[in-house]
Write a structure and sequence with these properties.
With 379 residues, the chain is mainly alpha-helical. 53% of the residues lie in helices and 6% in strands. It contains 14 helices and six strands. The chain has helices at residues 5-30, 42-56, 59-65, 74-85, 94-114, 121-135, 140-157, 162-176, 184-188, 265-271, 285-298, 321-326, 332-361, 370-378; strands at 204-205, 215-219, 225-230, 237-238, 300-303, 313-316. Helix 4 runs parallel beside helix 14 (370-378), helix 5 (94-114) runs antiparallel to helix 8 (162-176) and helix 5 runs antiparallel to helix 11 (285-298). The protein is globular.
């Protein structure tokens, strides 16, 4: 297992979380049928993005994150990302965070699957960092934090060998192997099967530095080519595109890691791999429903009083308070409460198992990431 996987997982999952939350806050602010339109202002949305990104890229937090360490479990990773989301004035309930985490995981898993070569995982991460930087252009201090983090990522990962990048990718695949959540955006574009597995094409450009398959060349003892034999590849491969820029700024070439909830970014990401997929300019209704489901799970977002001069206020993503309390269909709110109770009970049971395991192994009861969580509380 690679000891350098955690920073890339956190940065890429955090980037996907920023994409989703920004889309939902924009949708709420521009909703014409929202009876409380204007309560959640554009300044509030920017403040949420700035607070989350500022906490995510704080120096003390990154110092701890960049230490060589094993990758966290899904439970621990979700806990860290929940603390990150709550670093702002926004609060998410348990069901909301569960669904948000699933969307983040499946988006990054898809990107890792399509990654042309292990080293290009850095380009995916840089795409996330470049896009995150655009959210804080009005806050130079936070933008400088993003730049400094990217410089440290370049310093740490640029010296890794191809074998170390391959080990890093294998560690990510092991981390994702049991996650098969269906995402309507992928289903609509025929990138995912109904069972949650991704559809990977056998066509498109080959990775940089790789020859197009289909040709066997034979050489004699003196190194002279004596024979060429062609064989069917089962796909339509093309020459590799140019290599992306691994510097602080530049053209990353690959589109993986960009905001897939913005126009055409998902199509751009997989177009070179799946040329047979047909896309159109009609509204992505299934993707909208996916985010609406997230909104329903979110219920209400409470804005806490973070300064004495400010007064707390509350917004909801439904048309009326009755809808928020009753749910979109009969029994929805009750089911969510039951799910939250069940999840809490399971978490307690899992915690007991973890405690017993630590005791048997002679290790202290504190789990991985406790230092990171404590540090987030102090930020």
């Amino acid at each position: 297992m690679s000891m350098r996987t955690l920073p890339l997982v956190f940065i890429n999952l955090g980037g996907e979380m920023v994409y989703i939350l920004d889309q939902r806050l924009k949708a709420h602010n521009t909703s014409e049928d929202n009876s409380e339109k204007g309560v959640w202002s554009e300044n509030d949305r920017k403040r949420v993005m700035t607070d989350i990104i500022g906490t995510m890229f704080s120096k003390t937090f990154m110092d701890e994150l960049l230490k060589p360490q094993q990758l966290y479990s899904h439970r621990m990773m979700k806990t860290v990302l929940t603390r990150l989301a709550h670093a702002s004035i926004m609060r998410l309930n348990l069901a909301s965070m569960d669904r948000l985490y699933e969307l983040m995981i499946m988006a990054f898993k898809y990107q890792v699957f399509l990654c042309p070569r292990p080293k290009d995982l850095l380009l995916i991460s840089y795409n996330h960092l470049d896009t995150i930087r655009e959210f804080v252009t009005d806050t130079p201090v936070v933008g400088n934090q993003v730049d400094e983090t990217q410089r440290r990522i370049i310093e740490v990962y640029s010296s890794l060998s191809e074998g170390e990048f391959q080990l890093l990718r294998q560690t990510l695949l092991i981390f994702f192997q049991d996650m098969h959540v269906r995402v309507s955006l992928f289903l609509k574009n025929h990138l995912q099967n109904p069972n949650g597995c991704f559809v990977l094409a056998t066509s498109g450009p080959v990775p940089h530095g790789i020859d197009v398959p289909g040709l066997i060349r034979s050489f004699d003892r003196k190194g002279r080519e004596v024979r060429r034999t062609e064989f069917p590849t089962g796909g339509n491969y093309t020459s590799p595109i140019r290599e992306g820029c691994f510097d602080l700024h530049g053209d990353r070439v690959i589109r993986l890691g960009l905001n897939m909830y913005s126009v055409n970014h998902l199509e751009e990401a997989h177009a070179s791999k799946t040329p047979s997929v047909k896309t159109d300019d009609s509204p992505n209704l299934m993707a909208k429903e996916e985010l609406n489901l997230l909104a329903r799970l979110m219920g209400s977002m409470k804005v806490e009083n973070t300064a004495k001069a400010e007064s707390s206020f509350r917004i909801n993503l439904f048309t009326t308070d009755e809808e928020e309390q009753m749910g979109t269909s009969g029994g929805t709110q009750q089911n969510l409460s039951e799910d939250e109770q069940t999840a809490t009970e399971l978490a307690q049971i899992a915690g007991q198992f973890a405690t017993e395991e630590d005791t048997e192994c002679g290790h202290p009861s504190s789990s991985k990431g406790d230092d990171l969580l404590a540090m987030m509380d102090d930020l």
